[in-house]
Specification:
alpha/beta, single chain, 5-stranded parallel beta sheet, 385 residues, Rossmann fold
């Protein structure tokens, strides 16, 4: 996995074409849709992510269908609200596998929800594409589990390297979501940080809807760290940052890439100024693929896309190319994912799967800092591709 460590980006790829495998002058799609099933949160504590997904999905569908769709038929999706709850994700899975119109499933948002439903998709031989599922065990659920999300086994060592090697932190306190994702990320981060020579002086878990971190922060302060690592989503990271500032604790804040969103700055305000994080995607990357995506997204939604928009967009572009090359029956999609090569990708440049892990290889890591109210490349970060 490459790390961005200079301000002048290098490399690039051909501009992203949604209809990469279609004729240049294809007729707009018509007829009965080819339908994907989406399991994810539209209500509940993670509802904002479902909204972000839909924006990325819809932009990709606009482009694919205008360019001829899937072998002339429009591509569409049905979005079932699971609230990213494992029990509801199981119910959605049962509904999707029974509906022969659903040719592939996308989601769920959180790895625990997806993994609860995996046995159902595996038994039915319906691909479950967990495009935000970074838990290392997600794709181990069976050969119908695929993902273009970077595994925490790959990401958290990069987070540890940023905290310890780049920022020079030696005594770190870790706050983590007390979920399967958060605990797994915490364990991987702590091991990597120790391997780099840092000492972990405090570890504190918190429940997803926790609002009051004052007693936790007292324990963190008393452990005398020189930095605080947040294994969080952007909403809880912004709340923690505000309470860190209110408590008068002056420590560098480092956070997992899961916080990377304009919403972090909107919710955290001045409290997240100086926060360090990383991302697989950065809208100021001048690669033609990224520039094309950002321009199209701004034209449709009048705002800048974030990483969750980009992952959703990338996923539908990928599925469109797989279906056009290999067919849109369930088993054709399953086999096509192993065969597809170099699909234009906002996140990866070009996406090709490692068939052993069923994840895309070659993700890039951008080291960032919140400065002057926006995400910027951290000084000294370099892009290598």
């Amino acid at each position: 996995m490459s790390v961005f460590n200079r301000r002048q980006f290098v490399g690039g790829s051909a501009a992203l074409l949604a209809a990469a495998s279609l004729p240049a002058h294809a007729e707009p799609a018509k007829g009965e849709p080819v339908t994907m099933g989406v399991s994810g949160p539209l209500t509940g504590p993670n509802a904002q992510y479902g909204t972000q997904w839909k924006q990325g999905f819809d932009l990709a569908l606009d482009q694919i269908n205008a360019a001829g769709g899937i072998k002339g038929r429009p591509l569409a999706y049905v979005f079932e609200d699971s609230q990213s709850d494992p029990r509801q994700a199981v119910a959605v899975a049962q509904k999707f596998v029974a509906d022969k119109k659903i040719v592939v499933e996308l989601g769920d948002f959180a790895s625990p929800a997806s993994m609860a439903a995996s046995p159902i998709y595996q038994k039915a031989k319906l691909v479950q594409f967990g495009f935000t599922n970074s838990h290392p065990d997600f794709t181990k659920g069976g050969d119908y589990m695929w993902s273009n999300s970077v595994s925490q086994a790959d990401e958290q060592p990069l987070s540890a390297a940023y905290a310890v090697k780049t920022l020079g932190l030696k005594k770190i306190a870790v706050l983590h979501l007390n979920t399967d994702w958060g605990r797994t990320s915490k364990d991987i981060f702590i091991k990597a940080a120790k391997d780099y020579g840092a000492e972990i002086v405090a570890v504190e878990g918190y429940i997803p809807d926790e609002k009051d971190f004052r007693s936790t922060l007292v324990r963190v302060r008393d452990a005398k760290p020189d930095g605080l690592m947040l294994l969080s989503y952007y909403s809880d990271a912004a709340l923690i940052a505000r309470q860190v500032k209110q408590a008068g604790i002056k420590l560098p804040l480092v956070a997992a890439s899961s916080v990377y969103s304009p919403k972090l700055i909107e919710l955290g305000g001045e409290s997240v100024e100086g926060l360090f994080t990383a991302s697989r995607y950065f809208p100021d990357d001048p690669r033609p693929t990224v520039k094309s995506f950002v321009a199209a997204f701004k034209a449709k939604y009048n705002k800048e896309p974030d990483a969750f928009n980009a992952y959703a967009y990338d996923t539908v572009i990928l599925m469109g190319q797989v279906m056009n090359q290999f067919g849109f029956e369930r088993e054709q999609i399953h086999q096509g994912l192993a065969k597809v090569k170099d699909v234009p990708s906002v996140i990866f440049g070009k996406a090709t799967f490692d068939t052993a892990t069923r994840r895309v290889s070659g993700a890039m890591n951008v080291e960032l800092v919140v400065k002057d109210g926006r995400f910027q490349l951290h000084e000294g970060s370099i892009a290598t591709r």
